[in-house]
Amino acid sequence: MKYCLAVATLVLLFLSACQPMQMDVYEKNIEIPQHDWTYDFKPSFELDLQAADTAFYYNIYVNIRHEDAYPFSNLWMTIMTTYPDSTAQEPVRVQLPLADINGKWLGSGIDDIYEHQVLIQEKAIFNQPGKYLFTFAQKMRQNPLPHVMNVGLRVEKAAHR
Fold first, then answer.
1. Residue 14: inside a domain, yes or no?
2. How far does the signal peptide extend, from start to end residue (predicted)?
3. Cα-flanking dihedrals φ and ψ of residue 142, to 5°?
4. What is the pTM of this model?
5. pLDDT per residue as tens digits for the range 56-94
6. SS (HEC) of the chain
7. Is the separation of the CB atoms in 105 and 42 below 8 Å?
């Protein structure tokens, strides 16, 4: 009897461990050439969703990795989304806060490198299965924008709709 109870407990633990609370769907980071982000460098990220994926809400993040010498407390950028049916959304302008009012970086840091994961949309809906293309462009007043090492996109399943 003890043996059956132990086996049943192990099976239940194994099955519960196979169902994470939140599953990462997509994350990709692109290196900025020479760590100087120019207006004409527009990294793109392709997210391929299956029909079953349209039944979920998603949280969308922008990843930024920069050096401590980055001269601003924020980063303005535009994000253009092209849908699977080839229609494109007008570019959306977003501000990414990177430091507090005292100049302390908000992200995590090691040495003189800081990483930020900024939530830009909560409970986003992807109605169409297929490939979504996200294109980023920096919209700061300085060109090139110095000390930006990487920019990226992270999309996580948030909940079932």
1. no
2. 1-23
3. -100, 130
4. 0.83
5. 999 999 999 999 999 999 999 999 999 999 999 999 999
6. CHHHHHHHHHHHHHHHHCCCCCCEEEEEEEECHHHEECCCCCCEEEEEECHHHHHEEEEEEEEEEEECCCCCCEEEEEEEEECCCCCECCCEEEEEECECCCCCECCEEECCEEEEEEEEEEEEECCCCEEEEEEEEECCCCCCEECEEEEEEEEEEEEEC
7. no
